[in-house]
Design goal:
The protein has 3 domains: about 45 residues, no CATH class; about 230 residues, 3-Layer(aba) Sandwich (Rossmann fold), CATH 3.40.50.1580; about 70 residues, no CATH class. Helices cover about 30% and strands about 30% of the residues. It contains 10 helices and 20 strands. The longest helix has 22 residues. The two termini are about 45 Å apart. It comes from Aquirhabdus parva.
Length: about 350
């Protein structure tokens, strides 16, 4: 009898230890070691079903920001905060406006943002993702301080750089790039002396069996998944964002003590992101005219790509800090220093989190 009791105790301890290993060393440090009831073990096991979470499997809304000031504004409003370092990056869990969230800085640049996005999805059970930050304007109709919510995000650094503006024919006929595993973005003229925007490949669990490109010589698929130029934001999140009340949320933009205006919430067309800092008015105008770009930054399109590959609903709020490529304006530096764009992006993000709360489960 004693032998059988010891065996049962050993089995329960083994199961508990195995669960902690499954959820990751951080989970062991922050709570698995203190699991003392069958209910807690069962709850943790149930939350992990269908999701491999290296750190925590509680459903959360993911929030990303590029700069520390943006993140600090959001962190200041979070409750029950707990921070874990993963590859040197701080991932902070807690509640924001009553919603379970996990917040992380993307880092500046596409490559950092892509790396951080996949880390976030691997380590946490992120149900939806929100990006909060500032951006340069590419549409002169909008003003400094306006917050753009683009319908999709595109990376214009995905290009085919040709010798001329003639349609490329590397695989034998015009516009055929299949032998290279590439595809030009349709209906977009080249920039300058032969820079053609192109689509890029993306795989996810839903499209992995699709044939994205067929080799014209062999007739066989050489790329699976999809070829895409841009990545759409989630339509339901877009509807909620469109219903936010900006007049009571956003801070006025003042150019003098007597001249102030309330920024607008812009339900935009496309946002663009690139590893190159855009400070060229001619290229800005090309992108606005030919790909309907309303704002530009250095991270969001990369995050949108990773979210699409992981099938995570995504949206971004980008507060305009200046007009990209405009002539030097002494007010821009003062505006950056004031932090108004960062505050407005954070305020709108918090308003969205509150409005989105019923959908996080």
């Amino acid at each position: 009898m004693r032998h059988s009791i010891i065996s049962r105790d050993f089995i329960q301890t083994f199961k508990k230890t195995a669960l902690c290993v499954t959820l990751g060393l951080t989970a062991l440090m922050t709570g698995c070691a203190s699991l003392s009831s069958h209910e807690r073990v069962s709850s943790s096991l149930q939350s992990a079903v269908g999701k491999h979470c290296l750190t925590e499997c509680n459903p959360r809304l993911g929030i990303m920001a590029a700069f520390g000031q943006e993140a600090e504004l959001l962190l200041a409003q979070m409750q029950d905060k707990s921070t874990v370092l993963i590859n040197g990056k701080s991932f902070t869990t807690g509640t924001l406006r009553g919603v379970p969230v996990v917040l992380v800085l993307s880092g500046i640049s596409m490559s950092n943002a892509v790396m951080t996005s996949q880390l976030l999805f691997d380590h946490y059970n992120v149900r939806q993702l929100v990006f909060s930050g500032i951006a340069g304007g590419t549409n002169s109709q909008y003003h400094v301080g306006d917050v753009v919510v683009a319908q999709s995000w595109l990376a214009p650094n995905e290009v085919y750089y040709a010798n001329s503006t003639a349609i490329p024919a590397p695989c034998g006929k015009a516009n055929d790039l299949t032998c290279l595993g590439l595809k030009l973005m349709p209906d977009v003229p080249p920039y300058a002396d032969g820079i053609f925007l192109r689509e890029t490949n993306v795989l996810n669990a839903k499209n992995s069996q699709q044939e994205a490109l067929i080799d014209t010589y062999s007739g066989k698929a050489i790329v699976h998944g999809e070829m895409r130029a841009d990545y759409p934001v989630d339509p339901q999140m877009l509807v909620v964002a469109n219903g936010l009340k900006v007049t009571t949320t956003l801070e006025p933009i003042c150019t003098s003590p007597t001249s102030c205006r309330t920024p607008n919430l812009v339900m935009g067309r496309r946002g663009i992101s690139s590893g190159a800092f855009l400070a060229n008015a001619k290229y800005r105008d090309y992108l606005e005219k030919n790909v309907q770009a309303d704002c530009v930054d250095m991270e969001t399109a990369g995050v949108a790509h990773v979210a699409y590959a992981n099938q995570i609903p995504f949206i971004a709020f980008r507060s305009l800090s200046d007009l990209a490529g405009a002539d030097a304006n002494p007010d821009v530096g003062a505006f950056f220093a004031s932090g108004v764009a960062q505050r407005n992006s954070a305020k709108l993000t918090m308003a969205f989190v509150e409005a989105w709360a019923p959908n996080v489960k």
